[in-house]
Amino acid sequence: MEKRAELYRGKAKSVYTTDDPERLILHFRNDTSAFDGEKIEQLERKGIVNNKFNAFIMQKLEEAGIPTQHDKIIADDECLVKNLDMMPVECVIRNIATGSLVRRLGVEDGMDLIPATFEFFLKNDELHDPMINDYHIKTFGWANEDEIEKMKALTFQVNDILSKLFKDANMILVDYKLEFGRYNGEVLLGDEFTPDGCRLWDIDTREKLDKDRFRQGLGGVVEAYEEVAHRLGVDLD
Ligand code: 5GP
Description:
This protein is α+β, with helices and mostly antiparallel strands. The chain has six helices and 14 strands.
């Protein structure tokens, strides 16, 4: 597989074309950003940890029947993925209230959300990823009705699978963001699942083990990601 031009440079990952038009390479960089790119730092080892973490989670999801973009790891900080036509929406599920939900609705931080709640956001840094609804998505053609329903169903299925996976490793999956794309007429899970895009708390202490450590300047960011990986049995070597 030949790596060619950089197609897109995100805040934490770069996407490269390859000699196969059906395949792309995702490069997980050490860059860590928050507040729509206002705060950016390089965190040693993060690219490698996230690449291996993502591969582990995507494999677990595939085994449980979720179709994903992931193909295989090709370097410590790179993986090969299917070339999806990404939909510009972020799908968020919350099992516990925190973050922007608390700021927007004034509900109690840390309260259990039963049932878990779902939100769509537009992927647009300049607009600070505004919350949108199904009608916006249809009206502006970001996805059609079937794709919207598929994204919701898959995001809830992922919640069942991963909440159990993390619980068995003594962690709570508080909330997370997923992105989807089209491939041969099918909706596939794209992008990544790492502690950069989810919240994970220790069950007993509620210690934060995710990117909130970076957002809130708590330190020990990559160490926390490594702790999560260790608890799940992800091979980081
Ligand atoms: P909140 O809306 O509370 O800021 O985020 C909800 C969840 O989605 C958190 O787990 C957060 O990490 C994730 N999330 C939301 N938007 C983004 C984003 O633009 N990038 C990343 N990496 N994660 C996001």
